[in-house]
Amino acid sequence: NAGAPVLGAGLAAVLLTALFAAAISYPFFRLRGPYYALATFGLLKLCEELALTLSGLTGGSGGLAISWPENLVQTYFLNVGLVGCTVLTVGLIARSRFGLSLVSIREDEQVARAFGVPVFWGKCAALLVSAALAAALGPIYLGDRLYINPGEMFGLETALMPITMAMLGGSGLLIGPVVGVVFLSLVQELLWTQLGVLRLAALGLVLAGVGLFMANFVG
Prior knowledge:
Layout: H1 6-28, H2 33-53, H3 55-58, E1 64-65, H4 72-94, H5 97-107, H6 109-114, H7 119-136, H8 138-145, E2 147-148, H9 150-153, H10 156-169, H11 176-195, H12 199-213
Antiparallel strand pairs: 1-2
Helix pairs in contact: 1-7, 5-7, 10-11, 10-12, 11-12
């Protein structure tokens, strides 16, 4: 609610999100298993309460209406450009030495560590990069919603959807998350049209199905 232009706010979001990710990466990646999951859930709730408290900046529980350019063609090409740049960036990272080290960490941390890969710092760097990319794509979300509030931004649905989209498309494929976004977005729209407020329950079943039945078919 600071009256900043969209571009300036987007750049500030990238910088602040990257700094925040760098700050939490060191203590969080010291945790394992359920302790890491609990810590991330606690951080989510902490951010929500902080956003509710800073009502002068965030609008509090009432949220904020976003002023967005009415030129739909301009907005469309802006979104396509942001997505294209993100996919290109991820592709370049995947083909770099850093990307190969991340693949080795994902497959087997112990083996990666044995070959001299800095597992801990690799995870920290991956979190920083992914957080910055997510913040850079924030304008797409704002252009679609035109309204945000802490309960929605820090809700479980918002937190879990990107993970589910990546799993649906194949987390080991460059184009996989894009396919997952398209598919799950269509499912969301269909559920909203047919079920209304019950869509969250149906979406929960979809997410559970992804976890139960697709674990051996993605990646």
